[in-house]
Amino acid sequence: MIIVTTENIANHKVTEVLGPVFGLTVRARGIGKDIMASLKGLVGGEINQYTEMLEDARKQAIDRMVKNAAAMGANAIVMMRFDSGEIGQNMSEIVAYGTAVVAEKE
């Protein structure tokens, strides 16, 4: 599956636009990660526990988006983006979205 953030794919021609596609995941922070992050916040620097959680969430959102696009018959996704939000005080929503297309090599 080709995934690009651009409208076009280099050396490819879009022959069919299948429609919007997305992958969604919601992650909750655990009490242990919150405690470690709070301690790290006192001294400053990157909070690795949250970075890892968000990286995993983005990967899972992309995997779900690809699965949905494949079910539609797509071999590529153009204009891919991420969006995120918070649900409650300890949950994060990550969505990967784009347009599912059929593309052929020129």
TrEMBL record:
Pfam families: YbjQ_1 (PF01906). InterPro entries: UPF0145_dom_sf, UPF0145_YbjQ-like. PANTHER family: UPF0145 PROTEIN SCO3412 (PTHR34068:SF2), UPF0145 PROTEIN YBJQ (PTHR34068). Belongs to the UPF0145 family. This is UPF0145 protein KHB02_011150. It comes from Neobacillus citreus.
